[in-house]
Amino acid sequence: MHQHWSENLADRVIVEKKEPYVISGGMTTSGPVHFGTLCEMLFPAAIKKALEKKGKKVRYYFIADIFDAFDSVPKSMEEYTKELAPHLGKPLCDVPDPTGKSRSFGDHYLDEARELMKKFGIEAEIVRINEYYRQGRFDELARFYLEHSDEARKIVEETSGKTEKKDWSPIMPVCEKCGRIATTRVTAHEGESYEYACDRDVKYTKGCGFRGKNRISDHRYKIVWRLHWPSWKQIFGTSIEGAGMDHHTKGGSEDTCKAITKNLLGKEYHIPYKYGFILFKGKKYSKSKGTGMGISEISTLLMPEVIKYMLLKPDLEENVDIDPDSDKILRKIEEFEYASTVDMNDPEASRSDRKKGIAFALSTDKMKWKSFLDALLYFQIYRDWEKVKEMTGDPDGVEYLKSYIEEWIDRKFMPDDYNFTYAPKKASGNVRKFIESLESGMDALAVHNAVFEFANASAIQPKDFFAEIYDAMIGKKKGPRLGKLIAAIGIEKLKKDML
Ligand SMILES: [Zn+2]
After folding, report:
1. Contact partners, residue 453, CB within 8 Å, separation at least 6
2. Residue 393 belongs to domain spanning
3. Which of 165, 275, 311, 339 is most open to solvent, judged by the fewest CB atoms within 10 Å of its CB?
4. Is the pLDDT of residue 289 over 60?
5. Are 395 and 440 part of one and the same domain?
6. Ligand 1 (ion): which residues have CB within 5 A?
C-alpha cells in the first residue's frame, strides 16, 4: 500500500530512535510568516500525527529563534523604519514592537505564527529560545565550544567551504552598553570568562566601541548559528528534524550540524529530512521581496484545510507551486472534496487516491461542507444565503463557506464562468422549444444530455446552442455547467421565467 511521507518517516523514527520521540523545528521571527514557515509547522505536525496514530508518545517543539540579530526592517513594517532603525543589530527579542501589540519586535511575528498555528490546528510546544539561553540551558555547550574553539572552527570551515575571520568565536556576546549582538567579537577567553569588543561594522549597523568582560554564566551571549542548530538538538533530545533544501546543499548548515554532532560532540545524529521549495506561480517565493500573495491574504479566499491539503499532498522533496488562479483553486477545492470520500484503508485504492485520502486526513478531522461549487452557484443565482442553505440542504456547510465566497465576489476572484447574474429573457425559437421539452424532475446530467440531443435532432452545433441558451438566461455566451445551472434554478421556475 502506498504510504505518505509522514508515515515513512514515522516508521523510521520507531526503528531508529527511542520513545518518547521528539520532533523539533523552528523559525527566525524576523518577518511575516510565509508559506515556507507554514510548511515548517505543518510537516512536523504531520509526522507527530503519524506517530500518534501508531500509539507512540511524541513531543513537538516549535523553536522561535528570537535571540537572533535584527538585521533589516521587513516590508510590512516599513512605515516604522524611523523607530526601528536605531535597534538594528540587537536581538529580535530586545527590539520594541512599534505597533505596541506584542512584547517585542520578535514576539510580534511569533504571535502571528501562534495565530496561524491556531487557525491551521497545529499543536506544538512553542519555545522562545532567548529564555533557554537566560536559564543557562546552553551554557554547558557554550563552554565546551569555547574550550574546543579551534576544532569547532575547523569543522565549520570544512563543511561550509568558507574561511572564517581570524577573530571567529563560537559565541556572540550581547554588548552591555548598546545591546547589540551583531557587532561584537570575542577578543579573548579563558575558561568561563571572555572579553569582547563591540566594534564590528555589519553594513546595516556599527558597533558602539565598547570593550567588556563577561562570563558564560551571565547568559548574555548566543551561540553562532552553525553551532546553535546542533546544540538545540542536544538540548531538546531531537529524534527527527527537517530543513529546507537550502540547508541541505553542499556547504549548507546541515553538513555542519551533522559533523559537529558526530565528530565534535560525539553524539548520535537525529533523523534529518529535507523538503522542497515553495514556488509562487512557478517562481521561487521570496519573503524579503514580498512576492506573491501572503498566507493571510490567501486564507481569506481559501479554507485552511484546503491550504493544508495543498501543502501536504505532494511528495516531501517536491516543490510546491502556489498559484492563486481562481480556476485552479476551484479544481483544488473539488479535489479536496473528492479526497474526503476516499477510503484510505481500502487495499484496492489506487496510489493516487490513497495519497489524496491521507493528505485529507492530515488536513482535517471532518468534512465541513458538501459542495463549494454548489454554494457558489446557488449564491450567484439567488444572492440570498438563507435560500442557498435551503437549496443545498447544507446549512452548516454554507455558513462555513459564506465568508470565503463573499470574498471571492468582493475581490472579483470569481472564475469567469461563475461570474454571472441570472437575468432570464423571454425565450424564442429553438431555446423556447428546448425549455418546453424539459420535464420537471430532470437532474443536471439529464438536462446536459437533453441539450445535446436537442441540438443533434435540430441539426445545430451543440456549442452554438449552448451559447444561445446561456445568452437567454444570463446574458453571456458562457457560464457554469449548463445542466447544473438549470437544475439549480429548477425547471419549473425556468419555465415560469422564460416561457
Ligand atoms: Zn555596543
Report:
1. none
2. 372-418
3. 165
4. no
5. no
6. 175, 177-178, 198, 208, 210
